[in-house]
């Protein structure tokens, strides 16, 4: 999820009136029917920068906070916790201004509703794009300060003293030289008071909670199996369902020819045909699963095209490569690139590509649906956008949106997996099956079904040209990104702006900090088949583009015999922030090292460097590698990250560890493959994610430059693949232009 | 009727003999702390102790567990080594999303029960569970920490 998504939302939604996108248009653009944008009322999207609009829910203390008599603070979080530490970060921000102990907080994901739309000028809500803290920092500071003022006012009333005479400390209101009242004692009285407007905020220089490396909440529960994820939800009287999707997307079941035999299997309740899948409902998931794998199904085309029988990832890459050189839509431009190339002494060109990726989060998708006697529907489903899932559930059920109670359990990992991806979501199946059986139903996707119906990071391709003068200076720089991103797929090409630019394909080719005398960055739209669902994958466009761009930059450095670290320093000579970042990462690594060297353990090693500017945060990464048995060994990663300001430096370091691991995973071994139009990589044995044996040491330095706050969850990812690729080149001269690197046998010891 | 000894209690379940232990624990016994991740013994999210051995319950037919003590994450704090592992997990702040961590804690408990001071190589060999959040370094730190307290 990306800054590009927010831009798409702004671009796609006409300001000043409710969203009125043509449903037909969305279906036409999205194939399988994806509703992501439909339910967002963006009344004032351009007011995002306006403090007043952004804070329009910050006085709604009762919607967010409940202080219990024992002092526990129950907090409703607009964002969903999935390992990124957002429950703790929001508690930490509120605790600072409320003047409470952050460890006293108990946080749950808020239900859908207006009060929790804290993003996009108080009109939007989703967990993604590394937006959560930066989009709600002011909101939650104000909310905490408002609640504190109400508690102080309640105490003043009780003590019959002026509020100005009272202070607070860690969950208590204090009368200097007099009494102390706990927030728990005051909460009921405070709740009756009107929230004050413009409560005073703490001077950031006096923060005692924000900026501290305090422990995250819920760590013990997460160490002892006590968290209830969606897959663990139990509802009285529920049945369990397993599904088998069509082998090739776009087909649906015409008939289950052995339905009677399936119904006779132990525990089986019923057999159902769903859009694009068959389902068996049983009294246990294992029995449902055992039965559905035995289903004999006659598949037929649904309304749209069925995945071509000869579709492969290689064929898709061929389509993108065939578009190389096509004039694209200009995303960024400086000066006149054409005459600069004509005058260049030398031109360097290269092409790069990256595969389809699965999210491969550890918790397989599931959804539980229960229709109630009063006409309401409860749905439990992993999701990153409760309002959108509520609306989607209502459409599937054919009831009013406000009849749906949408529950958002903690996520067993997400990385972009749980947006509204149409056929990529399990809740429509649960709702249809609950309707058909008259019982609550929980659908669980097997790991194989999940790999076959994920919304993949798109396979992508990029071309580069650099024009150099006789002195080896870059005088012209041209890059183009090819394909279709999740923004085009799920919001339609109409929302891409003018000229149309899909940020989820282009970010990372655009937004780089380097200055070139002339440059042009282009987007060349090439559609993926409708049967390949496209999704937001941790760091989105950056996940491939920073690999492409930073590797090509190293190619230029190599061509002119310049040190890649020195080249980058020179190219950011206009930016103190980026220079500090590069120097910071080098210092963290004990100094930059150019070229191969012998390590004390006898291995021959080298280092590579890369920069990335994802989601408002600046990152510099150094990797140190050797080669063993034809494969890269990554020994250390050093990451300097500048998010402007830190709420919790420990969580940031943990997120960088995590982001670096998934970045390295994508660089080494991940790729979704298709055979005969079907997904061939359907479990962790063939879709290889990073395991312990290849996890490097990761060293993190958090730099707070004071720049506007950037994101945290994703920015650690994109620098890793290019830093590793550049280190491999420095070691053995092999230039890797395609991910994953595991496809290429490396030379050297 | 199949009889199992789970967390020190004898339990009777009515299932097909080839049902994986994982689904008996989760569905018949309501012990949902043990997680389903892959179903093919790749990821380790379903790891439990069967007769003290770290075992991938998604691929163990329930009949094969009859007569052997089974320990799941729900009873880990009653296990002398497991209790130390949990404390170390909390101190090192190992979990992120937490979904794989039941299995990680069980695998670490089995490792430390036989090898209280594992070398980095021994940790690497014993801890083959997948963590998509990439908490491998924090887990290694927690294992070393737990070992130091044994």
TrEMBL record, chain A:
Write out the GO MF terms.
oxidoreductase activity
- Which segments constitute the Aldehyde oxidase/xanthine dehydrogenase a/b hammerhead domain? 224-303
Top-rank taxon, per record: Bacteria
Q: Which residues form the signal peptide?
A: none
One Pfam family recorded for the sequence? MoCoBD_1
Name-wise, this protein is: Oxidoreductase
UniProtKB/TrEMBL annotation, chain B:
Q: Which domain of life is it from?
A: Bacteria
Q: Which keywords annotate this record?
A: 2Fe-2S, Iron, Iron-sulfur, Metal-binding, Oxidoreductase
InterPro entries reported for this sequence: 2Fe-2S-bd, 2Fe-2S-bd_dom_sf, 2Fe-2S_ferredoxin-like_sf, 2Fe-2S_ferredoxin-type, 2Fe2S_fd_BS, Beta-grasp_dom_sf, Diverse_Oxidoreductases
Keyword Transmembrane on this protein?
A: no
Query: Which positions are tagged coiled coil?
Result: none
Where is the 2Fe-2S ferredoxin-type domain positioned along the sequence?
1-76
| GO MF term list | 2 iron, 2 sulfur cluster binding; metal ion binding; oxidoreductase activity
* Gene3D superfamilies for the chain: 3.10.20.30, [2Fe-2S]-binding domain
Q: Which SUPFAM superfamilies match?
A: 2Fe-2S ferredoxin-like (SSF54292), CO dehydrogenase ISP C-domain like (SSF47741)
A Pfam family cross-referenced in the UniProt record is Fer2_2
| UniProt-recorded name of the protein | (2Fe-2S)-binding protein
Q: What is the native source organism of this protein?
A: Neoroseomonas lacus
List the lineage, top down: Bacteria, Pseudomonadati, Pseudomonadota, Alphaproteobacteria, Acetobacterales
């Amino acid at each position: 999820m990306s800054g590009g998504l927010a831009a798409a939302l702004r671009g796609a939604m006409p300001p000043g009136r409710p969203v009125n996108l043509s449903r037909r248009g969305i279906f036409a653009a999205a194939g399988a029917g994806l509703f992501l944008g439909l339910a967002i009322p963006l009344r004032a999207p351009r007011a995002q920068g306006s403090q007043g609009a952004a804070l329009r829910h910050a006085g709604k203390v009762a919607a967010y906070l409940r202080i219990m008599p024992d002092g526990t603070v129950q907090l409703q979080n607009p964002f969903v916790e999935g390992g990124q530490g957002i429950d703790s970060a929001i508690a930490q921000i509120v605790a600072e201004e409320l003047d409470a102990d952050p460890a006293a907080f108990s946080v749950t994901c808020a239900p859908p509703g207006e009060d929790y739309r804290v993003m996009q000028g108080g009109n939007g809500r989703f967990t993604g794009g590394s937006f959560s803290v930066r989009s709600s920092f002011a909101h939650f500071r104000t909310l905490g300060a408002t609640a504190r003022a109400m508690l102080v006012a309640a105490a003043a009333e009780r003590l019959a003293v002026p509020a100005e005479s009272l202070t607070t400390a860690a969950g208590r209101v204090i009368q200097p030289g007099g009494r102390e009242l706990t927030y728990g004692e005051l909460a009921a009285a405070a709740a009756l008071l009107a929230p004050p407007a413009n409560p005073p905020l703490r001077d950031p220089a006096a923060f005692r909670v924000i900026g501290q490396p305090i422990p995250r909440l819920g760590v013990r529960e997460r160490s002892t199996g006590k968290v209830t994820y969606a897959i663990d939800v139990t509802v009285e009287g529920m049945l369990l369902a397993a599904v088998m999707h069509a082998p090739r997307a776009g087909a649906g079941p015409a008939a289950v020819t052995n339905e009677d035999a399936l119904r006779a299997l132990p525990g089986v309740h019923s057999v159902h045909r769903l859009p694009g899948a068959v389902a068996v409902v049983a009294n246990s998931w294992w029995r449902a699963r055992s039965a559905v794998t035995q289903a004999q199904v006659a598949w037929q085309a649904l309304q749209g095209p069925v995945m071509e029988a000869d579709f492969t990832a290689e064929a898709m890459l061929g389509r993108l490569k065939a578009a190389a050189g096509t004039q694209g839509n200009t995303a960024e431009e400086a000066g006149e690139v054409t005459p600069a190339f004509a005058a260049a002494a030398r031109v360097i060109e290269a092409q790069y590509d990256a595969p389809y990726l699965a999210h491969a989060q550890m918790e397989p998708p599931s959804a539980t649906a229960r229709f109630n006697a009063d006409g309401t529907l409860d749905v439990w489903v992993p999701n990153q956008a409760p309002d959108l899932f509520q609306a989607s559930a209502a459409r599937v059920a054919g009831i009013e949106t406000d009849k749906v109670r949408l529950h958002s359990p903690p996520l067993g990992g997400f990385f972009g997996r749980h947006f509204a991806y149409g056929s990529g979501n399990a809740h429509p199946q649960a709702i249809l099956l609950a309707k058909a059986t008259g019982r609550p139903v929980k659908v669980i996707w097997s790991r194989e079904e999940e790999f076959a119906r994920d919304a993949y990071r798109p396979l992508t391709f990029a071309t580069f040209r650099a024009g150099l003068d006789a002195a080896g200076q870059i005088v012209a720089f041209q890059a183009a990104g090819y394909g279709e991103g999740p923004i085009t797929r799920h919001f339609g090409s109409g929302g891409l702006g003018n000229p149309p630019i899909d940020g989820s394909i282009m970010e990372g080719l655009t937004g780089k900090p380097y200055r070139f005398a002339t440059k042009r960055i282009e987007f060349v739209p090439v559609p993926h088949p409708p049967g390949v669902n496209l999704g937001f994958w941790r760091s989105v466009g950056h996940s491939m583009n920073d690999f492409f761009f930073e590797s090509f930059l190293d190619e230029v450095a190599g061509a002119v015999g310049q040190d890649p670290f020195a080249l980058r320093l020179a190219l950011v000579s206009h930016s103190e922030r980026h220079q500090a970042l590069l120097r910071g990462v080098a210092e963290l690594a004990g100094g930059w090292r150019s070229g191969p060297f012998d390590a004390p353990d006898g291995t021959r090693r080298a280092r590579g460097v890369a920069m990335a500017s994802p989601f408002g945060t600046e990152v510099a990464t150094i990797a140190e590698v050797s080669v063993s048995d034809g494969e890269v060994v990554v020994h250390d990663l050093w990451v300097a990250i500048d998010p402007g300001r830190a709420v919790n430096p420990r969580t940031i370091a943990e997120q960088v560890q995590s982001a670096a691991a998934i970045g390295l995973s994508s660089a080494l071994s991940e790729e979704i493959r298709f055979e005969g139009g079907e997904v061939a990589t359907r479990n962790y044995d063939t879709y290889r994610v990073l395991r312990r044996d290849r996890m490097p040491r990761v060293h993190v330095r958090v730099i707070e430059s004071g720049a506007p706050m950037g994101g945290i969850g994703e920015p650690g990812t994109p620098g890793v693949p290019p830093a590793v690729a550049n280190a491999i080149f420095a070691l053995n001269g092999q230039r890797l232009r395609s991910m994953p690197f595991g496809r290429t046998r490396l030379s050297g010891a | 009727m199949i009889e199992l000894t789970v967390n020190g209690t004898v339990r009777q379940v009515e299932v097909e003999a080839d049902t994986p232990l994982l689904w008996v624990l989760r569905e018949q016994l309501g012990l949902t702390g043990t997680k389903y991740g892959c179903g093919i013994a790749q990821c380790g999210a379903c790891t439990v102790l069967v007769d003290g051995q770290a075992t991938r319950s998604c691929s163990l037919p329930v009949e094969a567990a009859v007569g052997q003590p089974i320990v799941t994450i729900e009873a880990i704090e009653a296990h002398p080594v497991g209790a130390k592992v949990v404390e170390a997990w909390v101190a090192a702040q190992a979990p992120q999303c937490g979904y794989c961590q039941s299995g990680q804690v069980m695998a670490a408990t089995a490792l430390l029960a036989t090898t209280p001071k594992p070398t980095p190589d021994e940790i690497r060999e014993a801890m083959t569970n997948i963590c998509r959040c990439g908490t491998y370094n924090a887990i290694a730190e927690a294992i070393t920490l737990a070992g130091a307290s044994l």
